[in-house]
Amino acid sequence: MIKCGKEEVNEELDKEIEVVEKKVKKKVPVVEKLNNLKQKNESFVNELKTVAVNDNVPSRIYHCKKCKTDYNLRKSYMRHIGLTCERRRSKAKLLLQSVEKMEAKTNLKPQIKNETTDSIKPHINKTNGSLFKKQPVPKKSGSNYRTCKICRKQFSTKYTLARHIRTLECSLKRKQLAGGSMPRRQKLKTH
After folding, report:
1. Where residue 35 falls among pLDDT bands split at 50, 70, 90?
2. Domain extent for 82
3. CA torsion angle for 126, 132, 133, 135 (degrees, to 10)?
């Protein structure tokens, strides 16, 4: 077997190369499969990270100190602070602020010619906290009310009675209008 010819050496090398290639071919597919799995796993992890960022997964919990509630999302916490928690201030503070706003307005007209706008104090309704430029007329039966001659409804001012008649709120006048009703002045104008 020991021959010094080039052909014999080449044949032996070819045989050894074939043996090595067979061994390597058996190992290479396993290594390639492992590398492919690793790449797929890394891409899957990256996808999970992007989905977690895009789905507003909370990174922290927001805690309200006033009412001791927890919120997962910042926008929910901010909505709570703006709408719920801040509006729980006492009614006295709110009334005081509204009176100050009313006094700050310069469009108050004096009731008597000698009075100035500084001396007029707005009236605060005790039931709902709304402000009026002057105290409203209390509801009483008697001469303070104007009565509609058609439907016998009572109105506190002559202006509301006139509006009632103009907008045809009375049931008798509605029948004269071909079945239509005019609850607002604009509807009457369009008619």
Report:
1. low
2. 60-103
3. -50
